[in-house]
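re: that chain from earlier
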Amino acid sequence: GRMGPLKVWVVTWMCAMASARGSGAKIVPNRIVLSNKVQTLGRSNAFQVSLRSNYLQKRNRDMSTGAVGSISSLWSAYLEQLSANPLQTKMITSGALSASGDALAQGLENFGNNEEGKKKSLYDLRRTFVMTALGYGFTAPMLHLWYGFLNGFFTNGYGATVFGGALVKTKLSKTLALLACDQLLFSPLATVSFFVMNGFAYSLAAFNFNLVAKSKDIGQQLKSEYWTTLVNNWRLWPAAQMVNFYLVPPNLQVLFANFVGLLWTTYLSLVAYKK
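^ sequence. v structure.
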């Protein structure tokens, strides 16, 4: 005979329960949750998340290791060049940092617009060329010779004999002796030399060969800027050179001075080309 609606519902429910028990499902009124499948899907998603997390961590470690390795390789290559060609390596480094210092100085000078809403001035490539040439051909050789002389003089040269004993007996006393010579003898002469060399070099780069007139301009600039520049030198360099002479190996002292000199070159460029 025909089954009523209630019998049909009961039979359907019993069949669903039997099927669910066979598949491991969890029975909830009006809802069948396939718990095994859900748990499997959850474990699969968790496994995928774990794999991706491990991959990202490994990639970050590899990138970090690669960056450190690249820097280490570059530094090793630089030290090899410094050992094989000390003066040339220092000259190239000094030239590059001098160019960077002048570019920074011109960026500071020309930052923003003038009162008319236009750029204050165009970038002066000749000026950068002159500053680069001075860093390459003047500053680096001068520092190379000066630091070599100082370290030899107070280590095993004539100065070690004449000023031996208490003056250079300890590392600190030797550092103070180097610092005194550097700031009281070298810095005043180096400051004069910069203004003279820069003035003549820029004039020649502009194809202005009236060196007599340029000498007068340089003299006026020295009168107005020399003392202020030297005082500012003493505000920066004694502390930097104390670190340089005390902690930095002699073969890297020019490099250390060049990096500090990036700030100093920026300042000198602003002073020398003051408008």
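Residues 27-34 have pLDDT under 50 and may be disordered.
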